[in-house]
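Fold this sequence, please.
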Amino acid sequence: MRIACLLSLLATAIAVAQERSFIACPIVRDTKTVPCFLAEYEGELYYLGIQQDITAAFHPPQLKHQVLVEGRMSEGPRICGGILLAPLSISVLKEVNLACNTLLPAEPGIDAPPAARGAGPASYSLAEPPPAPESLTGRQEFTILYAFNDDFVDFAAIRAVRRAAGYAVKNGASAVKVTGYRATTLLSNGERLVEKAGLAEKRAEEVVTLLQGSGVTGVSADWKENAEPGDGKTDFSRRRVTITVIP
């Protein structure tokens, strides 16, 4: 029993040690194909992603702005000279920081991974919503995630709203409940960042507007004003809006 307990504590300690949550200036590394984005923390480089079109899951951070990086160290070779974090969440902080302007030249042997989509505008139409899977039945919940301290609904979130709207309309939902949340982020150095007051309400109301614009009726909004606590591991998943569709 005691050995099992010690092994469990050791496994937990290792898992926590692999989590990374920090604020840093983004670094752009040039390559022979597309730029790579990196961030440095405690003398180590971490890989964030590459420049692709706006429909890609990764949205590059901006120079002259710090970025909140939240992820888990992943085993495997370095990418663009940085350690891979997966899953990974990136939040660009709005305050200008002129010191965040590091550009690294291309180096032999440091290449970007293949890009699924080229850099620039969307490579396919954004107009048509993806259909809701036919297998969905009964009460369903759809989740929209946000960057820290932001209410911007990105491409992935728009797809979730459209899926929820399509399911609600198709099934003649009796009610659609939208709930907004704000959260706390626990950084690796022990500091806690709390999202601004009023953000949960704003997120919820904006999603209600999107659903109503998609023809959904019977939509109501609610929000949790108190920021959810941070654990340094799943904080990015707490910055959210949930859409509950009730047939």
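The radius of gyration is 20 Å. The chain has two domains: 13-104, 140-246.
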